[in-house]
Amino acid sequence: MASAGAYRYNLLIPRRQLLILCVTSLIGGGIGSVILLYTSADMFKQLLPYLLLSATLIFTFSEPLKMWLQFQSKKSSSESPPLLILVIAQLAISIYGGFFGAGLVILMLATLSFLGIKNIHTMNAFKSFLGSCINGIAIFPFMFAGLIAWHQAILMAVGGSLGGYLCAHYARNLDPRFVRIFVIVVSFSMTTYFFIWGENR
Predict the structure, then answer these.
(1) What is the DSSP string of 120-132?
(2) pLDDT digit string (tens) for 37-78?
(3) Is 170 exposed, middle or buried (CB count within 10 Å of its CB: 0-12, 13-18, 19+)?
(4) What is the dihedral of CA 81, 27, 22, 133, to 10 degrees?
(5) Residue 41 belongs to what domain range?
């Protein structure tokens, strides 16, 4: 939520569309969180490395992919993808985020990039705000189920909020190309980690 506040000026989207995406994220995050309460995470741990790899590759090669799609679509239409596509994609990502969450940022960045949002700071604004919606709503089912260790959770919340705001604040002043390269490096590192050690944890 703190990083979303730092990126608030980069949310370059009409309020109506932003509200729709926010509601979509809340619904999806709630659904995923409830599913997690009744489902073992073992199967998801097995799928996670492949999901991370797919999202990382999509984000890394999103520009040539988008150029190819635009070239292919010139014969029919040159319009940007409709809001409905973004809503459906965000709903699926939100359910995933509420259910497990690892790699959520990569998936959101990959989807936003693939759907035509180029500026990395605008993408970060979207993923921070919508990610806050997902994580915010996902906590409620666990609260009602009494599964939260509050002392540890409060410490993590304070540290995460402070770090999120500071990182977002300084990242906005960096060259977008540098930030994009950094995200790609971290994404591949995370993917490699889960492929090698993920199943043993």
Answers:
(1) HHHHHHHHHHHHH
(2) 887 768 878 888 887 888 888 778 877 766 665 564 454 444
(3) exposed
(4) -130
(5) 2-200
Q: How many residues does the chain have?
A: 201
Helix (H, G, I), strand (E, B) or coil at 52: helix
Residue 142's H or E segment, with its range, is helix 120-145
Tell me 8's DSSP state.
G
Q: Are 139 and 1 a contacting pair, CB within 8 Å?
A: no
Q: Kindly provide the residue ranges of all beta strands, DSSP E only, lying in the chain, ordered along the sequence.
A: none
pLDDT digits (tens, 9 = 90+) for 134-173: 988 988 998 888 888 888 888 988 887 787 777 777 777 7
Answering whether pTM is above 0.85, one says no
Q: At which residue do the structure tokens 């990126």 appear?
A: 7
Give me the amino acid identity at 169: H
Q: Which residues contact 29 (CB under 8 A, 6 or more apart)?
A: 94, 95, 97, 98, 133, 134, 135, 136, 137, 138
Task: Name the domain count of the chain.
Answer: 1
**What token pair was written down for 72?**
């292919």
